[in-house]
Structures are given as C-alpha cells and as structure tokens.
Amino acid sequence: MGKITDIAVKIEGVEFVCRSCAVVMHDGKILFQKRKNDKYWALPGGKIEVLEKTSEAIKRELEEELAITDITVGDVISVTENFFEWNGNRVHQYIFAHKVTFNDSKYNDIEGTFDGAEEGKDVIFTWIKKEDLVNTPIKPDYVVDQLLNADNGIQFSTCVE
Prior knowledge:
The chain has helices at about 55-65, 145-150; strands at about 10, 15-25, 30-35, 45, 70-85, 90-100, 115, 125-130, 155-160. By secondary structure, it is mainly beta. It has one domain (about 10-160): Nucleoside Triphosphate Pyrophosphohydrolase (Alpha-Beta Complex), CATH 3.90.79.10. Strands 1, 2, 3, 4, 5, 6, 7, 8 and 9 form a nine-stranded mixed sheet that branches. The mean pLDDT is about 90.
C-alpha cells in the first residue's frame, strides 16, 4: 500500500489516499508520465506523507522520479475527490494539483519519450501539447478538462469511475 509514512489507510475495506501532482507546463506542452507497458498517461506526482505539505510532496516526487531539484512549485490549480477501483480494491482519493516550473531546463525541450531517474520503476515521460490532450489516453479522465480550464482559478471536481 506504500510507505508507512504515506497518507494511505484502509478504512472499512476502502483505501483512503492523499496525492499531490505536478502540472508542469512549458511552451504549450504539459509533462506526463506512465509505466512503459501502461496505456494511459498521468501527471507526475505521488502520495503525500504525514505532516508533509502538498508542495513538498511534489518536490520530493520530482526529485525521486527525475532527479531534478531546481523547480518552483506554484499555486494549487485543482483539488479532486476521486472514487474508483484499482486491482479489485475500492479507493477514495484526494488529489492536489500544483502548477510547477522547471528552472533547470534539462527536461524542458526533450522531444518524444524519455526515461525517468527512479531505478526499477520503468517509468517514461513525455511532453503533450495542450491541443493534443483530448486525443491522448490520459487517466484519470477528468484531468484533461481541468488542464484545459487551468487558467480559470482553482477547480474542485468529484470523479466517480
């Protein structure tokens, strides 16, 4: 279920999880990740640890996943409560998405897919043009609408899959 310090607990058979995601935008493109064999792309991020701010979770996750530390974590652009099943388990999840800027530009202009830095995770990354989001397999489903409306202030969504 994750590290012992993650905000991830099982309550009456339902896994309750808090996550933080990075919305990294550069030149009209947004950074996504997936495991090499997965069909769907997702925003980079991960579980928030106990007593960890959502912005700190993003910094930690990006350092783990891309070995990058020179970033600016901006405002929250969305909060989502997400209800779904994963591997036969019911999940109740809260996701906080922050705008993020890479100050270190080593990843900003990479074309195509590229490997992450986290060993043994088999995760790849890519930049997807904003106008291509609707034709790209992205999970959770609500992410595309949130990204297309990111300039309209903080959004709150409920997603039931």
